[in-house]
């Protein structure tokens, strides 16, 4: 096959990851300070309701939906004054609103469910997961930026939720996304995986760490791999990215080519770290590993990094 710099969007590796199926037209050039208020007044507006780390789902129609009308949202105590306009999907206004987290007090057909369970159990479709990733990240940012970092005065939401304006010094604050590098280090027919202390039993995964200011993605991948495993990397290549609303990260998946094999594990970060032959990784992916070791589930970027390598020629 001839070398191709570009691939079709539907073949991009990111396309196959959870939280990546956002179909909302953000209309970022049309955001005004009253755009969320105006959108809320539209009769067909769809609202997602986000509590801290949880999304409300309505099970009254048989299957679950994450979308509420304004009247339904208000009945549940959602903060309409803090509504964020996500954009439009099929020309329907899409908004995200904060709501209290307690399941007690909610009607029986409405459940407050944590983001990981919604993703793992596919309780909403790709578009709903995409709206969740966008809305949850923005709401979490607003909740932690109520005061100006420069002068300490209160800040107010502007631009439909894409900005906060300081009432004291006038500084404008913009939503942040925290980049995290996640990398699968490979050496010939084996790959390097580790176990974090909080991992479920038997799970091994690609190493990961926050990209620091002033650092390229490639440099962060090399630094984290050296710090956590004592492995120096040569070539580093990008594979895919995944929005990760915990609270507002972007996972950036890469492969790294190991220059040495002797592991020196960071014992604070990792409970274990070792090389896995490709045959063993295939067993972990298939759920047939004799020691019941496994990799993260399919919606996770780590899974796709591991699978793509294990199944490659
Ligand atoms: Zn200020």
From TrEMBL:
Residues covered by the Nudix hydrolase domain: 175-301
InterPro entries assigned to the protein according to its UniProt record, in alphabetical order: NAD-cap_RNA_hydrolase_NudC, NADH_PPase-like_N, NudC-like_C, NUDIX_hydrolase-like_dom_sf, NUDIX_hydrolase_CS, NUDIX_hydrolase_dom, Znr_NADH_PPase
MF-aspect GO terms: metal ion binding; NADH pyrophosphatase activity
GO biological process: NAD+ catabolic process; NADP+ catabolic process
Catalytic activity of the protein: a 5'-end NAD(+)-phospho-ribonucleoside in mRNA + H2O = a 5'-end phospho-adenosine-phospho-ribonucleoside in mRNA + beta-nicotinamide D-ribonucleotide + 2 H(+)
Keyword vocabulary terms for this entry: Hydrolase, Magnesium, Metal-binding, NAD
Cofactor: Mg(2+); Zn(2+)
EC number: 3.6.1.22
PROSITE patterns noted in UniProt: NUDIX, NUDIX_BOX
GO cellular component term, pick one: cytosol
Pfam families registered for this protein in UniProt: NUDIX (PF00293), NUDIX-like (PF09296), Zn_ribbon_NUD (PF09297)
Annotated family: Belongs to the Nudix hydrolase family. NudC subfamily.
Alphabetized PANTHER family for the sequence: NAD-CAPPED RNA HYDROLASE NUDT12, NUDIX HYDROLASE, NUDC SUBFAMILY
Protein name: NAD(+) diphosphatase
């Amino acid at each position: 096959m001839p070398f191709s710099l570009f691939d079709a969007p539907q073949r991009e590796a990111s396309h196959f990851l959870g939280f990546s199926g956002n179909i909302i037209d953000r209309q970022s050039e049309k955001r005004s300070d009253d755009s969320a208020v105006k959108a809320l007044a539209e009769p067909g507006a769809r609202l997602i309701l986000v509590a801290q780390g949880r999304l409300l789902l309505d099970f009254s129609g048989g299957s679950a939906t994450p979308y509420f009308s304004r009247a339904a949202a208000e009945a549940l105590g959602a903060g309409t004054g803090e509504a964020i306009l996500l954009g439009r999907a099929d020309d329907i206004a899409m908004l995200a609103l904060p709501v209290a987290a307690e399941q007690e007090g909610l009607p029986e057909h409405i459940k407050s469910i944590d983001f990981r369970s919604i993703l793992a159990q596919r309780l909403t479709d790709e578009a709903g997961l995409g709206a969740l990733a966008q809305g949850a990240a923005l709401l979490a940012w607003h909740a932690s930026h109520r005061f100006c970092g420069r002068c300490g005065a209160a800040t107010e939401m502007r631009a439909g939720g894409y900005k906060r304006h300081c009432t004291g010094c006038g500084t404008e604050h913009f939503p942040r996304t925290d980049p995290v590098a996640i990398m699968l280090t490979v050496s010939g027919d084996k790959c390097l995986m580790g176990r974090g202390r909080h991992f479920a039993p038997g799970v091994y995964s690609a190493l990961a760490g926050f990209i620091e200011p002033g650092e390229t993605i490639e440099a962060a991948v090399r630094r984290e791999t050296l710090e956590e495993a004592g492995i120096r990397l040569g070539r580093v290549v990008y594979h895919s990215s995944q929005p990760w609303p915990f609270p507002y990260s972007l996972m950036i998946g890469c492969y790294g080519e190991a220059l040495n094999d002797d592991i020196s594990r960071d014992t604070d970060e990792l409970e274990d770290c070792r090389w896995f032959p490709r045959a063993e990784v295939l067993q972990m992916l298939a759920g047939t590993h004799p020691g019941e070791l496994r990799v993260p589930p399919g919606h996770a970027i780590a899974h796709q990094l591991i699978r793509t390598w294990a199944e490659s020629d």
